[in-house]
Design goal:
This protein is of the alpha/beta class and 193 residues long. 26% of the residues lie in helices and 21% in strands. The protein has one domain: Rossmann fold (3-Layer(aba) Sandwich). The chain is built from four helices and eleven strands; from the N terminus they run ααβαβββββββαβββ. The strands form three sheets. A seven-stranded mixed β-sheet has the order 3-2-1-6-9-10-11. A hairpin with a 7-residue loop joins β2 and β3. The longest helix is centred in the N-terminal third of the chain and has 18 residues. It is an enzyme of class 6 (ligase). Keywords: ATP-binding, Ligase, Magnesium, Metal-binding, Nucleotide-binding.
Length: 193
């Protein structure tokens, strides 16, 4: 199956989840990950706001804020096309809608965190396989942004993909630019490679 076909199929599965199933999954994800993240104190954590049927992050955001972690959201880089920046996010952060209709913090350069200073980055994904391969929406934003991190084998940030269990497929066709993940969390499991 081609990448676009997998993308369409898995997005349909993800979007078919009921509101109750989505809420329960978000609560389970929070429970699953908060225990896993106990060793990290006052960490700098990047995550994303849910869009297009993605696994909900609002419960996780609230729990991480309650644990005194500093949170950062992706912002489309204004000058480097196809790259992301990670900007500080708090409950009262001014927000805007980017060109894809996704909420992001209104750009404030003084609140950008360099990627190497982040402890953890949670990434969205459309599909993943049993080897840690990740299929995104097709824009390549995370792959481009994380390429240097993988080429130089930085010790941090830890990159964790978030997905519903229904987004798992047997095998993804990969391209040279695809960045595999060492950890993917679903509400039910933590897959690590």
């Amino acid at each position: 199956m081609k990448r676009d076909e997998i993308r369409d199929l898995v997005r349909k599965k993800r979007n078919a989840l009921t509101q109750t199933e989505q809420k329960n999954a978000a609560k389970q994800l929070k429970v699953n990950l908060i225990q896993q993240l106990k060793p990290y104190k006052n960490a700098k954590i990047a995550l994303y706001l849910t869009n297009d049927g993605e696994l909900g992050t609002s419960e996780l955001i609230q729990a991480l804020q309650a644990e005194n972690h500093s949170l950062f959201l992706p912002v489309i880089h204004p000058f480097s096309k196809g790259y992301l920046l990670f900007q500080k996010y708090e409950k009262n952060s001014p927000m805007t809608t980017n060109r894809y209709g996704i909420f992001e913090p209104k750009l404030n350069c003084s609140q950008i965190c360099p990627i190497e200073q982040l402890d953890i980055i949670f990434t969205p994904l459309v599909a993943f396989d049993e080897k840690g391969n990740r299929l995104g929406m097709g824009g390549g934003f995370y792959d481009r942004t994380l390429a240097k991190y993988y080429q130089e084998q930085w010790q941090k940030p830890i990159v964790i993909g978030l997905a519903h269990e229904c987004q798992k497929v047997a095998l993804l066709p990969c391209e040279s630019w695809d960045i595999p993940l060492k950890w993917i969390a679903t509400p039910e499991f933590n897959y690590r490679w």
